[in-house]
Write a structure and sequence with these properties.
The complex is a heterodimer of chains A (256) and B (439). Chain A has 256 residues and is of the alpha/beta class. Chain A has helices at 47-55, 79-84, 102-114, 122-135, 153-167, 183-199, 238-246, 249-255, and strands at residues 7-16, 22-31, 36-40, 60-69, 72-73, 87-90, 97-101, 146-147, 171-175, 204-209, 222-227, 230-235. In chain A, 35% of the residues lie in helices and 28% in strands. With 439 residues, chain B is α/β, with parallel strands linked by helices. In chain B, the strands form 2 sheets. In chain B, strands 1, 4, 5, 7, 9, 11, 13, 15, 17 and 19 form a 10-stranded mixed beta sheet that branches. A 10-stranded mixed beta sheet of chain B has the order 3-2-6-8-10-12-14-16-18-20. The chains are: A alpha/beta (256), B alpha/beta (439).
Chain lengths: 256, 439
């Protein structure tokens, strides 16, 4: 990493906002521009907490350490500011918004990027939406459906990828995007992310996952293992393969 | 003699009745007697459990608005009234009522020549007594139905008569704009709609005021008859300013194979109570009943609905939604009543509420009373919160907190509007919701 990292996490401690339970016990991580990283870990290791904290979820609170995004302190920014600065979180459990179509939702999100004084060009928006849906192999009628309302698990995740394609983030955080998906849906989602990364090789991706299977389709440059709120191992793609054959057990015991 | 006050008394009724035909004088006096006999509803009654009239309605302070000769011009009318009238789309006729007296009526002459009657109730007393004798406060909302039904039947000053003859279909809606300007008053107005066999009409009633510094009571009694095969839509847009107590008592009576749909929108007033009884008296009758309310501050909305299935093979479907911010409160109490013999009834009832603050409250009390054995009925109610996960999801896409809340509320209430085939009303309400969200 010769350039300044896009994201730099130092000794990050964090807890649930209303409780005194520390979940992250000193995380260090650096992501370089355009890199694909994966954080793997067992349930309860704190990996999803890290993703939510980076996006600004009000339910979590950093108690120590620093996070710098593009050289600036991130943790005091509101979630919408972080989004406007280029951070995108693909949710593990996307929220349903009945009565609001995906198109309307995206239009509102893109209007927020234009600021108060400029109007989003609706023709350009429509063209961009159709273009992104075509890239991801989606039927245009999908955009008319209410956001996540009655969606299958696969549809919810595809909607996350469509949003990512429209918002063009510089840093995409994929929080357990593979959970609850069958292998076909997993492949569709992974293909989408790959296409977006091919199109914009400067986009940095952080994949949070329990399982190795997503990494068969989304090839990370770096793999980190998180156990009990700390990164206990970092390396190349081979770390994921190690985990696949040996599981998390030895990391868990190594911690104690 | 609860509710008889310095200003609301038999003298006030007599003053209104003087000079009226005998049948109407009798009707008013009988209604007043019924009012005096009927005790004031208290929270001990299930129907009034959540609206304490003792605290919410200062009846003793209110003076009834008498009838007066009014004229209407856009130059001299209140700005808000004119703005809302001009926001209206094409209409078949328009009526303006100012402080309980009709000030203007126009009707497409082509419809008038087909026999459509659209006029002030006061004019109708002399021009169409046969219609009023038959329908006014008789079959739908007679004084015996309750304390406030009786009060309105005794003290109404003016109102609206719409009569659509057999087979006549109106392409554009009839629009009524009602305006209240005075504090400390009690306004009694009635609406009577009679749609004869095979006719078709949409009717949009909008009531408006500025914010008032003291309470006024607006009592609206609405009687709607759809005869066999008629199609009627009745829309009530309550967009009063703060201060007034709005009491809207509505009864719709749907004949054989008719469609009689209603929409009740409550955005304004400090307290708004809607009593809606939709009676399906002809087999194959249909009633879609839509409602939405959006409250903030200390607004209090109380909806009391009844899907009253008398005839077999009839269908009713109710959807009421409420979004509540601040300390606003809504109550929904709805009953599906299927009478003996109303076999093959289809009746559904849904009430959904969205709380936007920790201090807002919604109570939902759906109820079924079924005396037939071959029916399909369901009811459901939810009270949900705009929680931190919702907001976080939207904000993580770059929307500010305000924009995020607005999108969720518009989506939530939009489900009701999307079922309404009146484009002008939908556009107007979408704007009104947005305005209220902007604060």
């Amino acid at each position: 990493m010769s350039d300044t990292p896009i994201l730099s996490i130092r000794n990050l401690h964090a807890k649930v906002a209303d409780e005194d339970i520390e979940i992250l016990h000193g995380v260090d991580l650096e992501l370089g521009k355009g890199e694909i990283h994966a954080i793997m870990g067992p349930n309860g290791s704190g990996k999803s907490t890290l993703a939510k904290l980076l996006a600004g979820h009000p339910g979590y609170e950093a108690t120590d350490g620093t996070v710098h995004y593009k050289g600036e302190e991130l943790l005091d920014q509101e979630p919408d500011e972080r989004s406007l600065a280029g951070i995108f979180l693909a949710f593990q459990y996307p929220v349903e918004i009945p009565g609001v179509s995906i198109a309307n939702f995206l239009r509102t999100a893109l209007q927020a990027r234009e600021g108060k004084d400029a109007e989003l060009d609706l023709f350009e928006f429509q063209d961009a939406l159709l273009d992104r849906m075509e890239l991801l192999g989606m039927d245009p009628s999908f955009a008319e459906r209410p956001v996540n309302d009655g969606f299958s698990g696969g549809e919810k995740k595809r909607n996350e990828i469509l949003q990512m394609a429209m918002l063009r983030p510089e840093l995409a955080l994929m929080d357990e995007t593979d959970s609850g998906l069958d292998i076909d849906a997993l492949q569709v989602v992974a293909d989408g992310v790959n296409k977006l990364h091919e199109e914009n090789p400067d986009m940095t991706v952080l994949i949070i996952t329990h399982y190795q299977r997503l990494l068969n389709y989304l090839k990370p440059h770096h793999v980190h293992v998180m156990v009990k709120g700390k990164i206990v191992r970092s390396g190349g793609p081979e770390v994921a393969e190690e985990l696949e054959s040996r599981g998390y057990e030895e990391f868990k015991t190594a911690q104690v | 003699m609860e509710g008889v006050t310095e200003h609301l008394n038999s003298d006030a009724v007599q003053a209104l009745a003087s000079g009226e035909p005998q049948w109407l004088q009798n009707r008013r006096m009988d209604a007043w007697a019924s009012y005096e006999r009927t005790p004031m509803p208290t929270t001990r009654l299930e129907e009034w459990r959540y609206t304490n009239l003792d605290r919410k309605l200062k009846l003793a302070t209110l003076e009834p608005l008498g009838w007066s000769e009014r004229s209407f011009s856009k130059e001299s009318a209140p700005a808000r009234l004119v703005a809302e009238m001009e926001a209206d789309h094409e209409s078949a006729g328009h009526l303006v009522e100012l402080d309980g007296s009709v000030a203007h009526v126009d009707l497409d002459p082509a419809l008038a020549s087909k026999g459509v009657v659209f006029m002030s109730l006061r004019t109708a007393v002399s021009e169409h007594p046969e219609l009023l004798e038959e329908y006014l406060a008789t079959r739908a909302l007679p004084a015996e139905r309750g304390k406030f039904q009786a009060l309105n039947a005794a003290l109404w000053t003016d109102g609206i008569l719409l009569y659509v003859p057999r087979g006549v279909q109106l392409e554009h809606p009839i629009r009524v704009s009602r305006w209240l300007s005075e504090s400390g008053k009690a306004l009694f107005s009635r609406t009577l709609i009679v749609a004869e066999e095979g006719s078709q009409v949409s009717y949009v009633d909008e009531i408006l005021s500025d914010d008032l510094d003291a309470q006024s009571l607006v009592s609206s009694a609405v009687e709607v008859f759809a005869k066999d095969n008629a199609q009627v839509q009745y829309v009530s847009l309550q967009r009063l300013g703060r201060g007034p107590f709005h009491l809207s008592q509505q009864r719709t009576i749907a004949g054989k194979d008719s469609t009689l749909d209603t929409l009740n929108v409550n955005m304004g007033a400090t307290t708004a109570r809607v009593d809606l009884n939709a009676q399906l008296v002809g087999s194959g009758a249909n009633s879609d009943m839509l409602g939405l309310c959006f409250g903030e501050g200390d607004q209090h909305f109380d909806h009391n609905t009844s899907q009253d299935h008398v005839a077999p093979h009839a269908y009713s479907d109710l959807l009421y939604k409420g979004a509540l911010d601040g300390k606003a409160r809504s109550v929904f109490r709805g009953i599906i009543k299927v009478h003996k013999g109303a076999q093959q009834t289809d009746a559904y009832q849904t009430n959904r509420n969205l709380l936007l603050s920790e201090t807002a409250r919604a109570d939902s009390l759906p109820n079924l009373e079924i005396e037939a054995d071959d029916v399909r009925c369901s009811h459901g109610a939810t009270v949900g919160q705009l929680d931190q996960d919702h907001l976080f999801y939207l904000m993580s896409r770059g929307m500010s907190r305000e924009v995020a809340e607005r999108l969720v509320v518009i989506g939530f209430l939009g489900e009701v509007l999307s079922k309404l085939p009146l484009g002008g009303v939908v556009a107007k309400l979408s704007r009104a919701i947005e305005e209220k969200l902007h604060g």
